# Entry
Amino acid sequence: MIDLYYWTTPNGHKITLFLEEAGLDYRIIPVNIGKGDQFAEDFLAIAPNNRIPAIVDHAPTDGGAAISVFESGAILYYLAEKTGQFLSKDLRKKTQTLEWLNWQMGGLGPMAGQNHHFSIYAPEKIEYAQQRYIKETARLYAVLNKQLKDRDFIAGDYSIADMACYPWIVPHEAQSQNLNDYPYLKAWYDRIASRPATLRAYDKASQINTQPSVTDEQSRKLLFGQDASSIK
# Structure
């Protein structure tokens, strides 16, 4: 059994995509980030960065005590190693998969996240900031589109690289991106969107939460008003 500490964000969706694809037994523990659940002591014990997702694996492969993992990229890698799925044993394919996993963690996610912030959530609309991140998101979409020109999935076979990237492409309209401008990326997106595990993962999300995380000034402060003093 795996406990998944989860909320309905792109990083949260990455892990439900894997768990549904792999058919692992798991339990979702909702962490409502708009209400401050991410600052609860029991959550911080396994996720010291006070961000979802995190997991606790109660049956690790070494047969020892339960293992907790935070950071979505680390979780995807851990689960791939645990199950032997969605990460090739071939050195070159594995290396390419991990390159693109880290590309998402270091590029697509942070840049699209700032795009969301300045375009949707920022109380003051700053044209320079909006255009800075819309343009960088577009550049990253173009990089991914180029990678997908001659293949169905990012590293050849469906892998944790695809699971990492797909949830960040889902809100493309909110990022001021038109998938028709990226035909290879659009075909990839449609392939993943139609997978049964993807449909199950997003259906579970709709059952857990249908509201935006930022609904008032208090939730805005919880999500965007933290500084060093927030760390205890």
